[in-house]
Amino acid sequence: MENVLLLGLSAPAGDDPFGDPLLRALSVPGASGVRLVVSATPSVLSRAGATASVASHPVAHALRRMASLADGLVIAAPESDAVPPASLRTLLDWLSWPADSSPLTGKPVAVMTTTRDAGTSTDPYCEVERMLFSAGATVIGPRTVVGRADRALRGTEDGRVSIDDPGVAVRSLFHLHRTAAEVRRGAGAPPAGGDRPWLL
Question: What InterPro entries does the annotation carry (predicted)?
């Protein structure tokens, strides 16, 4: 397998202002054999309502289909010992249940967290990682923590996002490549060549 396709997911900007920018910064094309496709956060997750949390929701079905087409996933979340935002929990629930058809089962998943602070939480695993473990995903840890994300991530004039902190860039890219290496190691990984029909 030469090309590995990773799907990047995060909570809406109102719940996590740095998740999507981090993923977009890492999705810049390169000759590395790893392609990170960042999915727009489904707008239904930003709205309160019982129907958004139902796994049979049409957007949930599309999201599960996208995850099944990807070789692995990258989940961005706020760095915290507490439960993740409701929107991200719903997104992960959509991917996790029903468990017998979850696209996360056995799939390599990297977790990257962001914070305005310099430090990290004291817990070795965040709640997002616990949810992924419960869903049967292969979590490629430990998570990468992007501290001082408001300084490390910078928007450019052409609408792109750059990572201004070299340490953050190296740790994040290394995590992507460890995830890709796990995909390549997995005997059951689908081939990643060619374009795939993204649904969102």
Answer: Flavoprotein-like_sf (IPR029039), FMN_Rdtase-like_dom (IPR005025)
